[in-house]
Amino acid sequence: MADYLPRVVDDELDELAEGLPAISVEGPKGVGKTVTALRRARTVFSLDAPAQRELLDADPGRIDSAAAPVLVDEWQRYPAVWDLVRRSVDRDPSPGRFLLTGSATPVEAPTHSGAGRIVRVRMRPMTLSERLPQPGTVSLQDLLRGGKPSVGGETGIDLPAYTNEILGSGFPAIRPLPPRAQRAQLDGYLSRIAEHDFPEQGISVRRPATLRAWLTAYAAATSTTATYTTILNAATPGDADKPAKTTTLAYRDVLSQIWLLDPVPGWLPTRNHLTRLAQGPKHQLADPALAARLLGASASSLLSGADSGPAIPRDGTLLGALFESLIALNLRVYAQAAEASVFHLRTRNGDHEVDFIVERDDHRVLAFEVKLSTTVTESDVTHLLWLRREIGDDLIDAAVINTGQYAYRRSDGIAVIPAALLTP
Questions:
Q1: Same structural domain for residues 141 and 111?
Q2: pLDDT reading at 240 higher than 60
Q3: pLDDT tens, 331-353?
Q4: Average pLDDT over residues 99-126
Q5: What is the reported pLDDT for 175?
Q6: In the predicted model, is pLDDT for residue 207 greater than 90?
Q7: What's the pLDDT score for residue 205?
Q8: What b/e string do you get for 136-174 counting C-beta neighbours within 10 Å, with b at 16 or more?
Q9: Inter-CA distances, 36 with 161, 258, 334, Å
Q10: Is 257 buried (19+), middle (13-18) or exposed (0-12) by CB count in 10 A?
């Protein structure tokens, strides 16, 4: 593991392990859960290996006697191990005893949720701060603390570089590969969903092409709040024999169980008078590279402003939607590290939208707009200024995340942050 790239979640895991007996690291296949957990483990049970499952089934006491920290990898392959760990924690709640990793919610759920014994931690693909050699200069945690800290820094990352980051993936094993190999790996990742992931979740896909078409339509809906009916119609244009709603709901459920769908929920404030807010989620896949691959997008097509894939109404270009998806990934990882949550804001009639709301436990918020532009105009901050007027001091700070070169504050107090300069 000499070439291990530090992850934002590392600090969270280390901090939690000082006080908690068991942590479950969850996320889609390929995000690096096992490698990250292995760096902390003395004993490993790899439950994707039948022999390891048989050993635990024959002698459950191995869980208790193994040298801690104990890594239980791909625990969903043997759901009974969840209750073994829970009962072991009941007997000995010493901190740092167990790490579990899982790439799916098991079909046969454990008999107990694990509440109070096993804490769940989400792991997502790599963020820009984990990928890029240049350190960022604007910390999300600093912004969340308030006081409108000074904002500065300079980056050489430009639009073609961001486009390559979108296409190159945040999966650690994929991004170092040459472009053709990256595309082949992403294709393989997507093919395995119907061939392996759905059957492992107890669902047989009789028409893989229909699943692929629905997933492609979902990719086309990236960074939009399109209804699931709109997505289904886009997946099967002119097809009188559309799949039943129950079928597409099963698609959505399984894709959520394997952490492939990662929608951003709508914000419902509890501390102020904002009303008439839409509650529908903003659609995102786990990695924007998957969406780009499903849509057949290339660097040249994206940079030329070309669209591809099913027709889903959106504001702006496909590249703009995928760039926003990349920012969604970054903000969710950074917000989790800061014990905050990420939402989007949209009024029901659509007259006001804010791309991302990052909310602290006390319900005060940061607001972010995302712009595929090197400059920021007055129209780019209209909704941020509206939100400031509406919620007053509940708005800690506001910023535009863009593709520019410099970070700074405008005269109206709105921060301008190039995406490459934002850090946890």
A1: no
A2: yes
A3: 999 999 999 999 999 998 888 99
A4: 84
A5: 94
A6: no
A7: 84
A8: bbbbbebbbeeeeeebebebebebeebbebbbbbbbbeb
A9: 27, 19, 17
A10: buried
Looking at residue 421, its pLDDT comes to: 98
Q: Are residues 133 and 102 in the same domain?
A: no
Residue-number span of the structural domain to which 67 is assigned? 8-122
Q: What distances in angstroms separate CA 21 from CA 88, 94, 120, one per listed residue?
A: 10, 5, 12
Mean of pLDDT over the chain: 93
C-alpha Rg value of the chain to the nearest Å: 22
How far is residue 365's CA from residue 403's CA, in Å, rounded to a whole number? 23
pLDDT band, very low/low/confident/very high, at 409 (cuts 50, 70, 90): very high
Q: What CATH number should be reported for the domain holding residue 85? A: 3.40.50.300
% pLDDT > 90, the chain:
79
In a domain, 77, yes or no: yes
Cα–Cα distance, 101 to 31 (Å, whole number): 11
> How far apart are the two ends of the chain, measured CA to CA in Å?
24
**Cβ–Cβ < 8 Å for 384, 357:** no
Residues 286 and 399 reside in one and the same domain: yes
Give the C-alpha separation, 394 to 319, whole Å.
32
pTM: 0.95
